Amino acid sequence: MIGFGPTMIKEIILAEPRGFCAGVIRAIDAVEEALKIYGAPIYVRKQIVHNPFVVKELEQKGAIFVEEVTEVPKGARVIFSAHGIAPTVKAMATQRSLDFIDATCPLVTKVHIEAVKYASRGNTIILIGHEGHDEVIGTMGEAPENMVLVGTVEEAQNIHIPDPNKVAVISQTTLSVDDTKGILEVLKGRFPNMTTPATSDICFATQNRQDAVKLLAKEVDLILVLGAENSSNSQRLREVASIIGTPSYLITNISELKIEWLDGITRIGITSGASTPEKLVDEVVLFFEENYSPKFRSLKAVEEDIEFSLPPEIVEIKKNM
Fold first, then answer.
1. What is the DSSP track for 177-189?
2. Which pLDDT band, with edges at 50, 70 and 90, does 200 fall under?
3. What is the pLDDT of residues 138-150, one digit of tens each?
4. Is 283 a known active-site residue?
């Protein structure tokens, strides 16, 4: 089919890896398995992952999403999202006699454990992350009196620490090594004795998808990132491409694509955030296939084969069924 408008797209390159990560798959599977075992409704605190299409599909299956556990009827069942929760949330759930399933990503749980450890040693904990993000709120709840949030180099330069020799740093998992590099350099300069975060605290999926976008940006004229506005890792993918100098746009689905973006473009890269269903990528691919008939190929940055087991509450029930 002849492409419409002044543009003829010659090639579409799909980044690999892209889309769902192991933590997202685990969280979604936890909700679906709970619905199979217990039936509807199953309550879920916050968006199980940051994507409206995932949330809508689970709602259609019987999940009810709430902002806080106080909205869940006493004695009901609730699932905590992949982003993690503060201990006060779990305490409130217990107080309301709620049966809960914790679908927190294991990588986030690891950071929570580190926060508790550092706080027990009397350290001031610097959390590198984005204010207001669900993961950051949950992590800070582990040691609110010992923790301060730093989101920019400027904040790192101006932060006041009571004892410069008792500082530990942790990071929001959905920030890559590149995202935290500048902030860490400033903090190391100011607090040379600080305990720095392990590279294993960085979400492998975040790093892998950003590495794939870096390769992609060198081969295309424009990049489309499929993901939700409130998805931190999707926003970072768009930013990574833009920093390299390749125009990039974050779209929730094909309906948000603007044809004027394609003027003068012959080669397009496509990727998606860690909470984006592949079906949304398929819709974009189909659009270009039907309207421009380009060549398609994949560009793989790294092999990703990590899997996480279901939450123990689900595993134990399935074992006894």
1. HHHHHHHHHHHHH
2. low
3. 999 999 999 999 9
4. no
